[in-house]
Write a structure and sequence with these properties.
- It comes from Tanacetum cinerariifolium (Dalmatian daisy).
- Pfam families: RT_RNaseH.
- Residues 2-96 form the Reverse transcriptase RNase H-like domain.
- By secondary structure, the protein is α+β, with helices and mostly antiparallel strands.
- It has a single domain (2-30, 39-116), classed as 2-Layer Sandwich (Nucleotidyltransferase, domain 5).
- 32% of the residues lie in helices and 29% in strands.
- It has five helices and five strands, in the order βββααβααβα.
- It has helices at residues 40-54, 56-59, 72-76, 84-93, 109-114; strands at residues 2-4, 8-17, 20-30, 63-68, 97-102.
- The strands form two sheets. It has a three-stranded antiparallel β-sheet with strand order 1-2-3.
- A hairpin with a 3-residue loop joins strand 1 (2-4) and strand 2 (8-17).
- The chain starts with a strand and ends in a 12-residue tail after the last helix.
- 22% of the residues are buried.
């Protein structure tokens, strides 16, 4: 499960056991100044790349399902005129065996919660 907000990204690695999702590992990070300027599609792709780098040892030789709430990512791999940054990320992800499945943001509780970190650039003295 992956989710991005305006200032942070969150991902949950888990497995299904008897139709129940069991989390294995949680990961989140705040975005730097440059990453906060990314488009929504770039932010959602950033969290997928972050998750695959973070959980590399779990995912490298296994078939995976990525639950996302941004359906445009599914079609990005077929697009030929994407930005250079997105093309680099697509090339990086091609070594993994995975597929995207759309979920509603409300159903993606854990990853959504992890991506809702506070704004690190907010001036606390105002």
């Amino acid at each position: 499960m992956c989710d991005a907000s305006n200032y942070a990204v969150g991902a949950v690695l888990g497995q299904r056991i008897e139709k129940h999702f069991r989390p294995i590992h949680y990961a989140s990070k705040t975005m730097n100044q440059a990453e906060t300027n990314y488009t929504t599609t770039e932010k959602e792709m950033l969290v997928v790349v972050y998750a695959f780098e973070k959980f590399f040892s779990y995912l490298i030789m296994n078939r995976s399902i990525v639950y996302i709430d941004h359906s445009a990512l599914k079609y990005l791999f077929a697009k030929k005129d994407a930005k250079a940054r997105l093309l680099r990320w697509i090339l990086l992800l091609q070594e993994f065996d995975f597929k995207f499945i759309d979920t509603k943001g409300a159903e993606n509780y854990a990853a959504d919660h992890l991506s809702r970190l506070e704004n690190p650039y907010e001036n606390i003295f105002d």
